[in-house]
Amino acid sequence: MLEIANLIKRYGQDEPVLKGLDLVVEDNSVVAIVGASGAGKSTMLRCINRLVEPSSGSIRLNGTELVALRGAALRRARRKIGMVFQGFNLIDRLTVMENVLAGRLGYVSLFQAVTRRFPAEDIDRAFALMERVGIAHYANKRADELSGGERQRVGVVRALMQEPEVLLADEPTASLDPRTSEQIMMLLQSLASELSLPVLINIHNVAQAKAYTERIVGLRHGTMIFDGVPAEFDKAALEAIYGGIEAPDDELTAAPAGIASGEES
């Protein structure tokens, strides 16, 4: 379980980017975080994994207070926080397998990391996860030879190799075409259920948030102004979150793109 209480992030003397956020995310749940650019969505995720230091507040993961951790204790805690990035963050010249095994760097010695001598059980787990997401046949292919959807699947498997207790996804479909975006959202949804893993997804596509998550949290200027199930997320909520800007009706009601035919791009 992830528990966030009164989370505040301020840069210098400026107005806080996050203004006292409270959020509890149970295991198995997929939560979409929506809001305009600058609403604080990415800052919130980066506070959770401590890429950004919270100014105050509490972030607890399965009972461990993350905000108080320093040094080795923080490094150990970060191993349990998987992160999927919009830009994939792969090392292009390395193979898919090598990129996936990077998710184990927090668990092996410096010698093993430098020489890429990972334990056999890590390699077996990597193959099993790559098979699960449909990229096992690319194990020895360079990352820069893959499509966007394939690269994002590598990013998902790399995060899962950490054996995370929570998975954070920062605009994981923003660099993908619509059909591939649907596939990645379906993958994250199914993995949350299979692995009893809480998943938080920053996303701009409201239709996808409604289709593939069970809860939507809306931020505006660092304040949470909506927290409910997708069926409750109506046009009034959309306009409140995005500053009263009129949005087309199909932004809320559009069905997911078809994925039954054609190859992944």
Structure, described:
This is Phosphonate ABC transporter ATP-binding protein. It is found in: Cell inner membrane. It is a peripheral membrane protein. It comes from Halomonas nitroreducens. There is one protein chain. The chain has a 6-stranded mixed beta sheet, with helices on both faces. Mean pLDDT is 88; it is low at 246-250 and 257-265. It has one domain (2-248): P-loop containing nucleotide triphosphate hydrolases (Rossmann fold), CATH 3.40.50. The radius of gyration is 19 Å and the shape is globular. Strand 7 (166-170), helix 7 and strand 8 (199-202) form a beta-alpha-beta unit. The chain has helices spanning 41-48, 71-78, 96-101, 110-115, 120-133, 148-160, 178-194, 206-212, 235-241, 250-253; strands at residues 2-9, 18-25, 30-34, 56-61, 64-65, 81-84, 166-170, 199-202, 215-220, 223-228. The protein has 10 helices and 10 strands.
